[in-house]
Amino acid sequence: MCWTSKPSAEDKALRIQDDIAQMSKKGSHWIRGNRQLLAQGLANLVDNAIKYTPEGGRIGLRVWTSGGATGLEVWDTGPGIPEADRARVLERFVRLD
Fold first, then answer.
1. Do the beta carbons of residue 69 and residue 95 sit within 8 Å?
2. Could you tell me the pLDDT band of residue 21, with boundaries at 50, 70 and 90?
3. What is the pLDDT of residue 4?
4. pLDDT value at position 1?
5. What number of H helices and E strands is found in the chain?
6. Pair 42, 74: CB distance under 8 Å
7. Alpha-carbon torsion 59, 6, 91, 93, what sign?
8. Which domains does the chain have, with CATH numbers?
């Protein structure tokens, strides 16, 4: 699903890592929510990681479980969001420089 962005990542020589297949061998993990919104949110996170990670960088997807909860994490080796702007990323329609 989110690997539709893979050609863009390959254009920048980004290395994509994920542990999703490995986690699925350990058993089923469910994230409850609206499937379309979760898929769109994940696609947005991956697209942003590709957009802001410098050429030759890394992007990863990680599934984790703790205390009965399951989570999905997208990470990258891009510059990150300046600490002063982090609270603003949750505001609607905000676009940071």
1. no
2. low
3. 63
4. 41
5. 3, 3
6. yes
7. positive
8. 24-97 (3.30.565.10)
Q: Which of 60, 81, 52 is nearest to 15 (CA)?
A: 60
Residue 79 near residue 52 (C-beta atoms within 8 A): yes
User: In the structure encoding, which two tokens stand for residue 52, read together?
Assistant: 């802001």
The pLDDT assigned to 49 comes to 92
Cβ(76)–Cβ(49) below 8 Å = yes
- Cβ-defined contacts of 34-40 (< 8 Å, 24+): 39/1, 39/2
Q: Is pLDDT above 90 for 75?
A: yes
- Each residue's pLDDT tens digit, 23-40: 666 666 677 889 999 889
